[in-house]
Amino acid sequence: MKASPDASASLGQLRVQFEAWLELKMKNLQGVSNELHAAMSYGLLDGGKRLRASLMFATGKALGLNPEVLFDAACAIEAIHAYSLVHDDLPSMDNDVLRRGKPTCHVKYGEAMALLAGDALQTTAFQWLAESTLLPPLVRLEQVRILAQASGAQGMANGQAIDLAHVGKSMSVDELTHMHARKTGDLIAASVRLAYCAKEGLVDTKANLEQFAKALGLAYQVIDDILDVEASSEVLGKTSGKDAMSNKPTMVSLMGLQKAKDLLNTLEQQALQACEHFDEESRSHLVLLTEWITKRKS
Amino acid sequence: MKASPDASASLGQLRVQFEAWLELKMKNLQGVSNELHAAMSYGLLDGGKRLRASLMFATGKALGLNPEVLFDAACAIEAIHAYSLVHDDLPSMDNDVLRRGKPTCHVKYGEAMALLAGDALQTTAFQWLAESTLLPPLVRLEQVRILAQASGAQGMANGQAIDLAHVGKSMSVDELTHMHARKTGDLIAASVRLAYCAKEGLVDTKANLEQFAKALGLAYQVIDDILDVEASSEVLGKTSGKDAMSNKPTMVSLMGLQKAKDLLNTLEQQALQACEHFDEESRSHLVLLTEWITKRKS
After folding, report:
1. Measured between CB atoms, does B145 come within 8 Å of chain A?
2. Region A5-295: CATH code
3. Residue of A115, B87, B188, B247 with fewest CB within 10 Å of its CB?
């Protein structure tokens, strides 16, 4: 199964449309003080691969949904992702000064404002879901539930906390897999779920998409661990080799580079297998994003 | 209009029931790593006046609602309040080491874990609303909207950002009123709104409750400013005189102590007037909480 150049072009076009929508959403968030609005926009706009939004659209395409009905929910998941990056970069967490080749939010706006910007980006995600008119209320309430579960105390924040508690300590592959699933995988999987919950009556399809979501979520972190030791700071646009230097357990440190690459390959096959359920055109964006994630160099 | 001892006893009893419910909600939040769960619980449980939850129940009582249908939403607003306190106390914000007479969350659990606990408490608020079975889905989606608007970029976080941008700078009474309304007032007002949105067809009542909510929200901050210069650290359970020392504009610094007290009195009258709409028994908890806020010594 291979992604076509057409798929890449059409997904790229969708991303441009989505980016404009996201900018408009921020512009329409009125009554926000200048400093806070600027710091939130800095964290959310003009950068990032929009992987989570793209995964939503790719899932929607596989299910025959109009991508535009997913735009507000895609804004919400990108806002959650942006909040997590702004807070992760803070001095008390990863203390990163560079993100996507630019100074991190707290370097530019100060630590207190970056904290608030992250807080407000999280809230805005739920506000956008609640205020949206693109999908029926029951779907949007379900999306609030999906996004909260994936990003909160049982999801992403939990992964961060497990990570924090294990710096300098040993961890088994199972423990690391669990941590990764919470820290990164849950939000990746939520992208798929946020889209399929907009479509009714999908028993078989749902199981396939769940398999796809889980494999891809873990693959994303495995390639991250591989890139952390293989890629340079220049290509990554952030400080590399950080995890290795700070003695954090990674898939590479636990199983070695070759076995991590083998695992990545297995996860890629699992994700692609789960897509076979759909016809070639419908699955084209899911295949493209799977390739994109597992073959990425930065 | 005066609060009765009966009102105080029945509201007190309700608070005990609610506290047990809140503890159960935290206990049922499963799959959370020990450290994160402990830090979240430390910020949320065993302390605090539960003013926002109580205001919800008082509003529900005025409208003839069973308080128990509001329990999950009350947990949600208390979680939002708790998150804001945990983040406010952080070194990059107010750098407070004492809260309710106990070490603040970051003093006890470290800065990174306190940041995550605050983040996760916010998410949990929305998760509890989305997962609740106590109210119909449409009401809960509206509650997500109310809570997000009141606490996010247009509400509480905005007030914090305005505050941050004005340390050491002058501010007019109007600007300070606007800042207070966002920083504290919106969440107080949201307590009233979260309850009345559960009841249908309330045009006049809604206007009265809006007047009540706004007056009380501002009163809460005015008395805070008065107490900041009048009360001792011992009574407050937190560092007092901090605002005055750090040159932050307050109602007292801008209009003087006497005029601030006059304003407080006016706001109290406005709040009580708005309650006249209800019969004596129905309004009893609203009257009690108004007295409690405007006459408090800490």
Report:
1. yes
2. 1.10.600.10
3. B247
B109: left (phi over 0), alpha (psi -120 to 50) or beta: alpha
- What is the ipTM for the molecules in this complex? 0.92
pLDDT tens-digit map of A24-54? 999 999 999 999 999 999 999 977 889 999 9
Q: What residues 28-67 of chain B have any CB closer than 8 A to a CB of chain A?
A: 29-33, 35-37, 40
Beta-carbon contacts below 8 Å between A and B: 163
Contact B137 A141 (CB under 8 A): yes
A contacts of B123 (beta carbons < 8 Å): 122, 148, 151-153, 157
Is it the case that residue A244 has pLDDT exceeding 80? no
Q: Is A124 on the interface with B (CB under 8 A)?
A: yes
Q: Which long-range contacts (CB under 8 A, 24 or more apart) does A20-25 make?
A: A21/A71, A21/A75, A22/A74, A22/A75, A22/A78, A25/A72, A25/A75, A25/A128
Q: How many CB atoms lie within 10 A of CB B172?
A: 10
pLDDT digits (tens, 9 = 90+) for A226-241: 998 887 555 555 555 5
Look up tokens 């398999």; give the residue: A211
Where are chain A's structural domains? 5-295
pTM surpassing 0.90? Answer: yes
A111 interaction partners in chain B (CB closer than 8 Å): 92
| Residue B98 parent element (H or E) | strand B98-99
